[in-house]
Structure formats: structure tokens, C-alpha cells
Write a structure and sequence with these properties.
Elements: E1 36-37, E2 50-52, E3 55-57, E4 70-72, E5 75-77, E6 90-92, E7 95-97, E8 110-112, E9 130-132, E10 184-185, E11 204-205, H1 213-222
Parallel strand pairs: 1-3, 2-4, 3-5, 4-6, 5-7, 6-8, 8-9, 10-11
């Protein structure tokens, strides 16, 4: 993985909005509590909490216990969740932009209509995680085991899926344009309705994957086949 994920300025807004049309995250001036910047929460014990409309920038949550945390319309910019316990956490309409989740425990967590562009999940533990209708543009999921998980309607434009295991994953309606692939496993994945423009099929394992007609046409064109 190139660059330092989570250390860049947030990506420019590009007009992404969740299907619900509701606002994602909260601006610093509109947060329900004073904005928190450069606060160290490392190793904090704070399970089973509810955070609503809070704003964090460059905060450190590394090795914290945030299991079963619930967030609603919170904003986290360039925050560090390295090795954080977020098991069974639930997040709705929250923004985690350019954050680091390296080695985090995300098993059975749910991210519903969350914006997570530019974030890094390398080596994270993610069995049973659900990303429903969120924005993971340019995120790094390199080498992560995402087998069987639900990424329906997720936006993964330009994401790094190098050596990612997506076997049996539900990717219905997902945006997979221009993703970075290297020995990426899509075997038995459901790709119906997925956007596949620019997919490097020679770097993907697709045995048993399910595609609709448009997906088949996109893959054929990737092999240089002229589709009449």
C-alpha cells in the first residue's frame, strides 16, 4: 500500500449522497458537543455507548475498547482506530474520512450509509461486517478477508482490493469502477447490478460469480471482445 492512509487532508466532496438523502456526519460548528481535535483516547474503555452528532479531527482511539459503540451522524476526520475494538458496533450516517483502522476488530459491525472514503482497513478483522450503501472510495482493503460480507450498493470507486478475499460476498449494485486488483478473489460473489467499468479482470478470480447482462458485457469488453 502506498502513501500514509489517514494522514492526508480529507478528500474533496464529490456530491456523494446516501440513497436516503439524509446528511452524513456533522460539521464542527453544528455538533451537539464542542469539536474535539488532537484528543488522545488511546486505550479508553468506553463500550456500549451512544454518540450522536459529535465531531472529531485527528483524534487517537488506538487500542480503545469501543465495542458495541453506536454512532449517529458523527464525523471522524483523519482519526486513528489502529487495533481498536469496535466489535458489534453500529454506525448510521457517520463519516470516517481518511481514518486508519489497521488491525481493528470490526467483526459483526454495521456501517449504514456511512462515508469512509480514503480510510485504511489493512489487516483489520472483519468477519460478518456490513457496509450498506456507504462510500468507500479510494479506501484500502488490501489483503482483508471480506468473504461472505454484505457490500450492497457500496461505492468502492478507486478502492485498493489487492489480494482481498471477496468470495461469496454480496456486491449487488456496488460501484467497482477503477478499483485496484491483484489476485483478488470474487469467486461465488453476487455482482448483479455492480458497476465494473475499468475492472482489470486478469487480476480477478471470478469462478462462480453471478453477473447480470451489463456486467457480462463489461467483462467481455475488458477482454477486448466487441459486443454488438
Amino acid at each position: 500500500m502506498s502513501g500514509h492512509w489517514g494522514e492526508r487532508e480529507p478528500l474533496d466532496d464529490d456530491g456523494w449522497q446516501p440513497d436516503s438523502g439524509q446528511s452524513v456526519g456533522v460539521r464542527a460548528d453544528d455538533a451537539d458537543q464542542p469539536p474535539e481535535v488532537n484528543v488522545d483516547y488511546a486505550r479508553t474503555q468506553a463500550p456500549d455507548q451512544l454518540w450522536q452528532r459529535r465531531y472529531f479531527h485527528d483524534c487517537n482511539f488506538s487500542q480503545a475498547d469501543l465495542s458495541a459503540l453506536r454512532t449517529v451522524q458523527c464525523t471522524f476526520i483523519a482519526c486513528n482506530f489502529t487495533a481498536t475494538n469496535l466489535h458489534r458496533s453500529q454506525h448510521r450516517l457517520s463519516a470516517f474520512r481518511n481514518c486508519s483502522f489497521l488491525g481493528a476488530q470490526l467483526g459483526d459491525s454495521v456501517f449504514e450509509e456511512c462515508q469512509m472514503d480514503g480510510s485504511a482497513f489493512d489487516s483489520a478483522q472483519m468477519p460478518g461486517v456490513v457496509f450498506r450503501g456507504g462510500d468507500l472510495s479510494e479506501a484500502s482493503l488490501a489483503g482483508v478477508d471480506l468473504s461472505g460480507i454484505d457490500l450492497s450498493d457500496a461505492r468502492l470507486y478507486g478502492a485498493d482490493l489487492s489480494q482481498t478475499d471477496l468470495s461469496g460476498a454480496r456486491l449487488v449494485g456496488a460501484d467497482l469502477r477503477e478499483v485496484r486488483l491483484e489476485s483478488t478473489n470474487f469467486e461465488e460473489a453476487d455482482l448483479n447490478g455492480a458497476l465494473l467499468d475499468g475492472l482489470d479482470v486478469q487480476q480477478a478470480r471470478l469462478a462462480g460469480a453471478r453477473l447480470d447482462r451489463d456486467g457480462c458485457v463489461a467483462l467481455a469488453r475488458a477482454f477486448g471482445v466487441v459486443v454488438a
